[in-house]
Amino acid sequence: MSAVHHLVELAANGNIGGLVNGVAPNWGPFSALGNTAKTVIDIVMAAVISALLGRAALGSFHIKIGEGQNDIAQVSKGKKEVAGSLIGAFVVASLGTVFTIVYGMGI
Questions:
Q1: How far is it, in rounded angstroms, from Cα 86 to Cα 58?
Q2: Radius of gyration over every alpha carbon of the chain, rounded to an integer in angstroms
Q3: pLDDT by residue (tens digit) across 12-34?
Q4: Residues 6+ apart with CB under 8 A from 103
Q5: DSSP 3-state assignment of 16?
Q6: What is the three-class DSSP state of 72?
Q7: What's the rounded Cα separation, in Å, for the pair 10 and 12?
Q8: Are the beta carbons of 78 and 62 closer than 8 angstroms?
Q9: How far apart are the C-alpha atoms of 93 and 45, rounded to whole Å?
Q10: Is the Cα torsion angle 18, 16, 84, 71 positive or negative in sign?
Q11: What pLDDT score was predicted for residue 19?
Q12: Are 95 and 25 within 8 A, CB to CB?
């Protein structure tokens, strides 16, 4: 089964949880936590990722405005915001995997 077919099947089932399980850590060291703690971690991670993606959008706005005004400093600021935000979003999204790997190495 191809990945696209799997995604279409998940979307047809109406279960969004299957698509976003990568952000919701519920394995390894997180499996011992209670449901409330898992929910809090999920909400915090989703909020941070949303904020970082919003900051990346703001950075792209700075790039567009800077290009329109021929302002190199504005464009440079926008590029730094976009790069930093996307790197931060990647790090936050992969924290569950990193914690699981470290936890597995400790066992």
A1: 12
A2: 18
A3: 555 555 545 555 555 556 666 67
A4: 28, 29
A5: helix
A6: helix
A7: 5
A8: yes
A9: 7
A10: positive
A11: 46
A12: yes
Residues 6+ apart with CB under 8 A from 25: 38, 41, 42, 45, 95, 96, 99, 100
User: Tokens 């989703």 map to which residue?
Assistant: 46
CA distance 99 to 64: 38
Question: Token pair of 42, please?
Answer: 């999920």
CA distance 91 to 67: 29
From residue 1, alpha-carbon distances to 7, 12, 20 in Å are 10, 15, 19
CA distance 71 to 76: 9
Phi, psi (deg, nearest 5) at residue 27:
-130, 175
H-run or E-run covering 61: helix 35-68
Query: C-alpha angle 48/54/55, rounded to 5°?
Result: 90
7 vs 56, which has greater pLDDT?
A: 56
Residues 61-96 pLDDT 10s: 999 999 989 989 989 999 999 999 999 988 888 877
